[in-house]
Amino acid sequence: MTERKPCRKCLLEEYDEARYQELIRREIDWMDAEMRAPEELYRKRLAICTECEKLLQGTCQSCGCYVELRAAAVKGNCPRKKW
Ligand code: SF4
Fold first, then answer.
1. For the chain, what is the domain count?
2. What is the pTM of this model?
């Protein structure tokens, strides 16, 4: 059995919301334009996520992804087929 490295972002006491938003925004900005979902589609997807019971602090409890990153990718999809 391999030893797992501790996840340094799992403690809520260390959660820095501003830093998280900055990192997510930077990842989205780095996406090639052809890989990025159009703004209208991105916003529509996020609106669905914000109504979903699986959304928790920016992550999807179904797949563990950051929903803003998943929604920003034109080929992104919802693991529960909501979008
Ligand atoms: S990706 Fe799908 S399952 Fe996950 S929070 Fe968004 S709508 Fe819900």
1. 1
2. 0.81
